Amino acid sequence: MDTLKMQDGVSIFFKDWGPKDAQPIVFHHGWPLSADDWDTQMLYFLDKGFRVIAHDRRGHGRSTQTWDGNDMDTYAADMIALADALDLKNAVHIGHSTGGGEVARYVARSKPGRVAKAVLVSAVPPIMVKSDSNPGGLPIEVFDGLRAALAANRAQFYVDLPSGPFYGFNREGVKTIDGVVHNWWRQGMMGSAKAHYDCIKTFSETDFTEDLKAITVPVLVLHGTDDQIVPYKDAGPLSAKLLQNSTLKLYDGYPHGMLTVHADVLNPDLLAFIKS
To answer: At 147, which CATH number?
Structure first.
């Protein structure tokens, strides 16, 4: 098992597949999942000749079940350490949901030559929670509800979310894919309840505005118009406006977890951007 130990003793699990001299693509997973959520993309891009890398964020998956350090600055610092250890150059960083926030913060702070391009998919930037400066955001009560559900019965909560709004299986005419729900539950239950609880605050209240403004590499912003987790009007288009060099693509009727249930559409779009 490949792991990298951070300065604070936390072990970060990662997968690193493909030729070491190929262009690397680094995948950043959403809450409360793991590197396994990217298996479809990793196999697809491995077949296209890329080096593909995905890690379990601290407190998630097979990484150390941390009770502290579950914040975006630490997540980005972990990625900086991993990029240094693997000597990643000219990499493309792709982040889904909370992972999109991690990508924004990491790319804004990355060393010269490390990053070629980035992709934000159904991502949380610029900021999710409603405030005086972000009147279009979601009320704090929404995130309080997530915390309450997690604390009360995490196992049931991790069934309800993927079988409902995460993949749009609660929409009329959309058939639930049981394996997808079970895999979401499996990944979620591998991680730390405390880290997942803390991460709700991290993904909802972290302001990525300055990170987005600081990024100079090309960034592709993808969002589904039926995203019930991160509503697209308050995320994708706003992020694209803040970025210096962005391309925005919206998918009509696609849910938050569109990378899984519509991989046949999104993977070729990702490839086209990477090769452009």
So the answer is: 3.40.50.1820
